[in-house]
């Protein structure tokens, strides 16, 4: 059985796992809108408690158009992860092309309040060929 998560990055003991799914029922292909849902799991493999404070995303479409998204936390939360804990969340992305990609980083806080960045792995957004029309 294959893993739910197709893309993984590990930075400073924190693992970010991503799975992504095209959502034809939420897309409006005739209007040039394609929608994906992505599920992210954060895993704290460090020996200290850390807290996610912010996110930075680079979203690009197949025309080379880019969008930067910066914000506090993820889906309204700034989760605190003790050693060995995980945090899962689901969000979505809409593009005006049927192919694109996302990547970026999270900013976490060490227990002493200093910051460190954790990579979000590059992952493609690709709708099935039949939805390109």
Automatic annotation (TrEMBL):
Residues 8-132 form the ApaG domain. Pfam families: DUF525. GO terms for biological process: error-free translesion synthesis. It comes from the Bacteria. PROSITE patterns: APAG. NCBIfam families: PRK05461.1. PANTHER family: F-BOX ONLY PROTEIN 3 (PTHR14289), POLYMERASE DELTA-INTERACTING PROTEIN 2 (PTHR14289:SF16). This is Co2+/Mg2+ efflux protein ApaG. It comes from Aurantiacibacter zhengii. The gene is apaG.
């Amino acid at each position: 059985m294959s893993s739910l998560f197709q893309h993984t990055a590990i930075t400073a003991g924190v693992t970010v796992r991503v799975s992504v799914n095209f959502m034809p029922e939420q897309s409006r292909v005739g209007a040039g809108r394609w929608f994906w849902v992505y599920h992210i799991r954060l895993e704290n493999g460090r020996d200290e408690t850390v807290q996610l404070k912010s996110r930075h995303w680079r979203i690009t479409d197949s025309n080379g158009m880019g969008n930067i998204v910066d914000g506090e936390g993820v889906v309204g939360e700034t989760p605190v992860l003790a050693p060995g804990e995980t945090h899962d969340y689901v969000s979505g992305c809409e593009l005006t092309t049927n192919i694109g990609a996302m990547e970026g980083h999270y900013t976490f806080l060490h227990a002493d309040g200093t910051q460190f960045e954790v990579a979000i792995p590059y992952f493609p957004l690709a709708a099935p060929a039949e939805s390109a029309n």
